[in-house]
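# nightly structure sweep
# worker-07 picked up a monomer target from the shared queue
# config: single-sequence mode, recycle default, output format = structure tokens
# input follows
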Amino acid sequence: MKLNWKYGLFLIGFLAIVLILENTRPKPIDWTRSFEREDKIPFGNHLLYQSLTQLFPGREVRENGLSFSRSLPELSPERWNLLVITNYFQPSETDLDALEQMVDSGGVALIAAEYFSTEAAERIGCESELDFLLGFGADSNWVNFVAPELRADSGYQFDQRFHNFAFSSWDSTQATVLAVNESGLPNLLRIPRGRGFYLMSATPGVFTNYFLLQPKGLEFVSKCLGYLPDRDLLWDEYNKPMGTGQSESLLSEVMKNPSLRWFWYLLLVGMVLYVIFMGRRRQRAIPLHEPPRNQSLDFVSTVGQLYFRNADHKDLALKKFLYIAEHFRSQYFIDLRQVAPPDWARVAEKSGVSEKSLGEFLDSHKALASAKEVSGPELLRFHRLAERLRRECR
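# output follows
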């Protein structure tokens, strides 16, 4: 009985210390890229959502937590501007159908994302990628508008917490470039479709709390939103990284409630203490063994930095070719080094790639292999040809 009292007093004292430390310690900054309207963390959208009523005075701002296929058909397209801000835009086929129907009927959709699914990129008409030639190691980069009346003399600065994404392909006969990055690549496009248009941004980070608090951050965002017509706003909360619009687990609901969260913590601590004190005499100590550390990513990063600093673009391009050639050898038993132009049709039919993609890739490799030096843009073009060929393989 005395032993149980000791355990009880120790448990009460331990929990009291944990509660005091938990309530007095400063909360660390949460750098999660949530893009959610209620989040006041750096990469939340609380400030932008609260500012919409000032940027569009007299207009309704409505939150939408449903998929496009369930929500958009119920709306009058010519009344609404749809705002989608996320890191990866990958709607389903039915959602893309509903989105296209809305824009074709006169609706306007602002879609800000770093990545777009293959189907979304093809149907909207633009594709984004990381601009890896832009300022590695620089403290900041900038974006600026193309229109003279909107351009800033020194551009709009953003630091390296924002990824340097830009549009790598778009239909220049249809799309209008509205803003570019430091490399001159577009990161804001206007793409007309039917009676409406898409306003596409490759830098969703500029719409977050962190960027809006930077000098001229609100000015840049207000100019971006100035391309939207004066309509009511439909704020999308379904296509978010955290899956706000989707069903959540029971544990996530428990963690949202402070009382239930502390009950969960106390339950875990009690279980741990029970295992410690009740299991001491029933189980001997288990030796700890450090698991082998996977250093593959560290090695790849080190080698990549070495190639980049040495600027040995030709060697890197040749190794990229060997990587693609090994894929063809292991999957289709084809040696790309021995493939001649008359054989392109046979190789294309066997691997599923287009003959055009295969020919451009092999011609580019032949030119780089015979060149004395390879420039950065040439390496980037060869990389894109290789990735396109890899994606087309079945």
